[in-house]
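quick one, 111 residues, struct below
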Amino acid sequence: MSLFGFIENFDPLTIVIWFASVFIKLAIYLFISSYGTAQFLKIKNWKVMIWLIAPVIMVFAYFPANVSEATSNYLMNYWVPIALPVNMIALPLLLLIVGKIKQKKSKSVSH
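---
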């Protein structure tokens, strides 16, 4: 890849930045999952959970045969039947119901 006609061999920098961003993102996901699980299970030392969660994640990473199988299964088995209806129907209805209840309570308190 050439940039402005005089900067050449720009590819290694792009790859290093890409790998670093993936590593940072996965590290943050591992931290969030271990910290959240430790809080949920009321474990004081959240660092212990890393030693339990990391092997579980590694085992689950070996289940899909390839990337296209993983993405298509995720899309068809989770996103379309579960996540889309919840995000498009259930959450807006829940927010509407909570808003109406709060609106009725504020009217009855102000009168």
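Strands lie at 2-3, 7-8.
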